Amino acid sequence: MIVGVGIDVVDIARFERSLERTPGLRERLFTEVERDMAGRSLAARFAAKEALAKALGAPAGLRWTDAEVARAEDGRPDLRVSGTVAAAAASRGVSRWHVSLSHDGGIATAVVIAESE
User: Which residues does UniProt assign to the signal peptide (predicted)?
Assistant: First the structure.
């Protein structure tokens, strides 16, 4: 059963300028594995984290680094959650995530579906 759906879009150039202007932003928003990725990939991952929060109903207290967008063996994006995000997901009965990322025309977008058994 679908628990929630979230979608978000990010202007890639604006996001890259924010990363340049605020040196600590990479550490606040991204896991160690994600931090060295290209700007458009980071923008898509940030959109996914925003979409994930929306799919959970935007509860207070989520830490950005408690969600990581990794690549599954088959190449699809895969959400890995821990800490605050895992706790919020568990309290809502979320047992599976679906995520789609895209970037084109200067915009990064992500859709996240939270599903329960």
Answer: none
CA distance 5 to 97: 10
- Residue count (the chain): 117
Tens digits of per-residue pLDDT, 1-16? 999 999 999 999 999 9
- The strand order across the sheet containing 96-104 reads 2-11, 107-115, 96-104
Question: 74 a known binding residue?
Answer: no
Range of the domain at 100: 2-115
Q: How much is the pTM?
A: 0.94
The answer on whether 16 is annotated among ligand-binding residues is: no
pLDDT tens digits for range 53-92? 999 999 999 999 999 999 999 999 999 999 999 999 999 9
Q: Which residue has the tokens 């990010």?
A: 10
